[in-house]
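Weekly puzzle thread! Below is a chain. First person to post its structure in token form gets bragging rights.
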Amino acid sequence: MKNLLLILFIFLACINTGLLAQSESRVHSHIDSSYNEELVLIQEFDVNVPLDDVWSAYTTKEGWEGAFVAKAEVDWKVGGLIKTTYDPNATIGDSTTIYLTIVNYVPKRLITLQANISDNFKVFTDEEAEDLYNVVQFEEISESKTNVISYGIGYKNNEKFKGLMKFFVQGNEMSYLKLIEYLEGEQ
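Winning reply:
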């Protein structure tokens, strides 16, 4: 519940500061409902930095802490874990920790992650959550510009999953804006 409240607090802060309004021009989100049984959340953005910089943000402790979360541990390998928390006062491994399994990756092209559903999403059973993945695709547009497309897959076409998807549309957009700010601000 702490993670959910913290994300909601960040979301409200972004609304108040106008940060979220930028998402319309930088992060584009839409839902593919081509399949009756499942929905796909597609979020895309360009970032004005080389592909190596974007890849590093996704695959290192320094990148996760600079772009996404307050604390992180990254065991970058197939089957490895990315452990994160948004709470700067928390400890990795406590109840605020989010665990992402690295399912697979193609260096500098593609990453597949699976979130381990925590107590913050008790409404979802492990069986319901086992099909939820995030596939992130990277494409070098030029030496100084990278395109990122995130595919949230495994959402069932029902009200419970639509509510979860709505939460992640907003939360992911905030995270991607932070990533863009982190990477472009380092130039």
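Puzzle host: Confirmed. Bonus trivia for everyone else. The radius of gyration is 16 Å.
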